[in-house]
């Protein structure tokens, strides 16, 4: 993905506030050289942030007519307004090793035996994984084919077929589950439901009526 950034001359809280009032977002680009203060158009950035690829892939940043490859590293949002307050990018090249969370795309759920034969459901234990690789190898997403999964089965990290050079960062966890097959809750038979119905207690009025008869 491509986006445009502009050099930012002024710094500080007051300067950033004035910048936001004009529809711009302050940002910084660091790594592989001197950090650069930048500003971006708020609306263009806000819409870009809605796209999955903007968060998980190498971006082409046009700064002063020169293209640089960067990764989105941090976004600061207003506590309750749909406003981007600040954004951080990291410069990368083909030799840069990076760690980044990558979304998971699950495919062939509807045709899996667990669904077609046993009426089960898929539970996505996680929807993204942190991976480590060269920047040039960073995938936009990881596809997980669950088309062969059966009732009671789970897929763990060690079961995944990852692209060459991609390593999952587990941070102390040992082979965690990624997706599991779960059975749907069965609806009770009408006879069972009827047997479980408990008679409602007599109302206050009915109790008083019985006492008056006595």
Provide an overview of this structure.
The protein is elongated. The protein starts with a strand and ends with a helix. A 6-stranded mixed barrel has the order 1-3-2-6-5-4. About 3% of the residues have low confidence. The chain folds into 2 domains: 91 residues, Beta Barrel (Ribosomal Protein L25, Chain P); 85 residues, Ribosomal protein L25, C-terminal domain (RNA Polymerase Alpha Subunit, Chain A, domain 2, Beta Complex), CATH 2.170.120.20. Helices cover 19% and strands 38% of the residues. The chain is built from 6 helices and 13 strands. The protein is of the alpha+beta class.
Number of domains: 2
End-to-end separation in angstroms reads 86 Å
Average residue pLDDT: 86
Helix content: 10-25%
Q: Which structural category fits the helices and strands?
A: alpha+beta
The CATH C-level name of the largest domain is Mainly Beta
* CA gyration radius, whole angstroms: 28 Å
H/E element sequence: EHEEHHEEEEHEEEEEEHH
Question: How many strands appear in the DSSP assignment?
Answer: 13
Q: What is the name of the CATH architecture of the largest domain?
A: Beta Barrel
Assigned CATH superfamily of the largest domain: Ribosomal Protein L25, Chain P
In the sheet with the most strands, the strands line up as 1-3-2-6-5-4
Given the structure, what is the number of helices? 6
Largest sheet: 6 strands, mixed, barrel
Low-confidence stretches: 195-200
Q: What is the overall shape? A: elongated
CATH topology name of the largest domain, in short, is Ribosomal Protein L25, Chain P
């Amino acid at each position: 993905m491509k986006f445009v950034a502009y050099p930012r001359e002024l710094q500080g809280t007051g300067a950033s506030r004035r910048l936001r009032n004009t529809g711009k977002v302050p940002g910084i680009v660091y790594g592989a050289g001197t950090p650069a203060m930048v500003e971006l158009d708020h609306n263009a950035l806000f819409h870009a942030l809605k796209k999955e690829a903007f968060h998980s892939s190498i971006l082409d940043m046009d700064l002063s007519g020169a293209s640089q490859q960067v990764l989105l590293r941090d976004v600061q949002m207003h506590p309750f307004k749909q406003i981007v307050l600040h954004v951080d990018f990291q410069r990368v090249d083909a030799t840069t090793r990076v760690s980044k969370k990558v979304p998971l795309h699950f495919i062939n759920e509807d045709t899996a035996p667990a669904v077609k034969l046993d009426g089960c459901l898929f539970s996505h234990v996680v929807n993204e994984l942190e991976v480590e690789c060269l920047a040039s190898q960073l995938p936009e997403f990881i596809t997980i084919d669950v088309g062969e999964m059966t009732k009671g089965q789970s897929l763990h990290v060690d079961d995944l077929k990852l692209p060459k050079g991609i390593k999952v960062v587990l941070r102390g966890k040992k082979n965690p589950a990624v997706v599991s097959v779960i059975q749907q809750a069965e609806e009770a038979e009408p006879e069972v439901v009827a047997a479980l119905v408990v008679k409602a207690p007599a109302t206050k009025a009915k109790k008083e009526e019985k006492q008056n008869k006595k």
